[in-house]
């Protein structure tokens, strides 16, 4: 359990960098790897990359709302008390980053439609990474604890803005594993 809020923020930044760097490597794969349909009928690597972008897009809407509310709540709530009483339960989130660890039907608006090319998706995902960092910089003193929003995936329940950003990073990690599985089928 992480209780030092500054360490938590740095840990999330490190996780984000790792996840986004791993995702970015997939844009350089050859067409065969990018477009191979796995035997289980799942998505191609290109579709997975689009799904990561779409999921980030919708999560970042919630993260933006949460960060604005957290900054407003800073004026009325005792941040020091929130920090003192907070402990990060990393275990609760671990399954999110493991492909196939639980069943969840994603909303239709997060399914790839093939409307964007790889260059556009890569650029948008890079922008999303910087958005995450800017929210962490905005809430650099623990303010992200001051707003909680319900996360239905794997019954996580009410999570704060930092945990939402961590969830976003874990989601990308989950799909890196899926892309590796696709690539293994080709070899």
Annotation, overall tally of beta strands = 2
Order of helices and strands: HHHHHHEEH
Please state how the strands of the largest beta sheet are arranged side by side: 1-2
SS class: mainly alpha
CATH fold label = Four Helix Bundle (Hemerythrin (Met), subunit A)
**Residue share in β-strands:** under 5%
CATH architecture: Up-down Bundle
Largest sheet: 2 strands, antiparallel
Q: What is Rg?
A: 17 Å
Attribute tags:
single chain; DinB/YfiT-like; mainly alpha; 187 residues; 7 helices; two-stranded antiparallel ribbon; elongated; DinB-like domain-containing protein; Four Helix Bundle (Hemerythrin (Met), subunit A)
Structure commentary:
The chain has 187 residues and is mainly α. The protein has one domain: Four Helix Bundle (Hemerythrin (Met), subunit A). It is built from seven helices and two strands; from the N terminus they run ααααααββα. The longest helix is centred in the first third of the chain and has 29 residues, at 45-73. The model has no long low-confidence stretch (mean pLDDT 94).
